[in-house]
């Protein structure tokens, strides 16, 4: 670790309690994406609500997550927390997520929320719709609040869906488009936990399509997605 990274890590962990440091040390490393059958693998489906869309400046306000395990969604395994932030001037994003400044002021210590979230995740891979945004926001939040390097792999449902269903895809299809296509109902959009739950339902539809296409394990799905992404990038030039 270079001197700048060492300084940043020490600064980030300086405000942690002894208990928090011990929990940080016990966090599990991500498991490799290997031969585990898709319909047996435990996934954590995550959605974050933020102060805005700038991954270098904006902050995570809430985290919602649900579990996919053994080909189902155990509703007793859900995660939903709001982080305490200094957020006195609501921006345009509040019109989308509806999280009031008073809720954020009454939120929980970000370090506690992020530790709780990582204990909920364990060594499981993560899923999200437009996963790169969630991944970047969580990575920065964990670095700043915990001095923790977030290395868990993400699979992006926004890329998985058109790869597995090319005949149904349309340019720039969003989550609502895929939900409508498969007849999935969402109770509340732009709520982190509700979005994670409906994303998990979409993931199960896609996993069953993957198995019908002889993509039966997690490693093979990740490999196919990388190949698909390379082709898409090549066609964009």
Characterise the protein shown here:
InterPro entries: DnaQ, Ribonucl_H, RNaseH-like_sf, RNaseH_sf. This is DNA-directed DNA polymerase. One of its GO terms (biological process) is DNA replication. Keywords: Exonuclease, Hydrolase, Nuclease. Residues 42-212 form the Exonuclease domain. The protein starts with a helix and ends with a helix. It has a 5-stranded mixed beta sheet, sandwiched between helices. The chain has helices at residues 3-13, 18-26, 94-97, 101-105, 110-121, 131-146, 157-164, 175-182, 192-212, 218-235; strands spanning 43-50, 60-68, 78-82, 126-128, 154-156. The chain is globular and about 50 Å long. The protein has one domain: 2-Layer Sandwich (Nucleotidyltransferase, domain 5). Helix 1 packs across helix 6 (131-146) and helix 7 runs parallel beside helix 9. It has 237 residues and is an alpha/beta fold. 47% of the residues lie in helices and 12% in strands. It has 10 helices and 5 strands; from the N terminus they run H-H-E-E-E-H-H-H-E-H-E-H-H-H-H.
Question: How would you summarize the topology of this molecule?
Answer:
Blueprint: H1 3-13, H2 18-26, E1 43-50, E2 60-68, E3 78-82, H3 94-97, H4 101-105, H5 110-121, E4 126-128, H6 131-146, E5 154-156, H7 157-164, H8 175-182, H9 192-212, H10 218-235
Parallel strand pairs: 1-4, 4-5
Antiparallel strand pairs: 1-2, 2-3
Helix pairs in contact: 1-6, 5-6, 7-9, 8-9
């Amino acid at each position: 670790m270079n001197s700048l990274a060492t300084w940043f890590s020490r600064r980030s962990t300086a405000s942690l309690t002894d208990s928090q440091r011990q929990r940080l040390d016990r966090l599990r490393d991500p498991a490799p994406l290997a031969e585990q059958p898709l319909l047996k693998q435990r996934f954590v489906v995550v959605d974050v609500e933020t102060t805005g869309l700038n991954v270098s400046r904006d902050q995570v306000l809430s985290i919602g997550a649900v579990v996919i395990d053994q080909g189902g969604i155990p509703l007793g395994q859900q995660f939903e927390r709001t982080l305490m932030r200094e957020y006195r001037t609501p921006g345009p994003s509040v019109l989308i997520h509806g999280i009031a400044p008073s809720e954020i002021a009454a939120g929980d210590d970000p370090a506690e929320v992020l530790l709780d979230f990582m204990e909920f995740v364990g060594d499981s891979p993560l899923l999200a719709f437009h996963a790169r945004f969630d991944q970047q926001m969580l990575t920065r939040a964990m670095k700043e609040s915990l001095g923790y390097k977030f290395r868990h792999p993400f699979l992006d449902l926004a890329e998985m869906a058109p790869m597995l269903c090319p005949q149904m895809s349309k340019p720039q299809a969003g989550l609502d488009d895929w939900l409508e296509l498969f007849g999935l109902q969402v109770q509340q959009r732009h709520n982190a936990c509700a979005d994670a739950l409906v994303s998990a339902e979409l993931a199960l539809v896609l996993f069953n399509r993957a198995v019908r296409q002889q993509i039966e394990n997690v490693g093979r799905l990740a490999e196919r997605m990388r190949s698909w992404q390379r082709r898409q990038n090549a066609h964009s030039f």
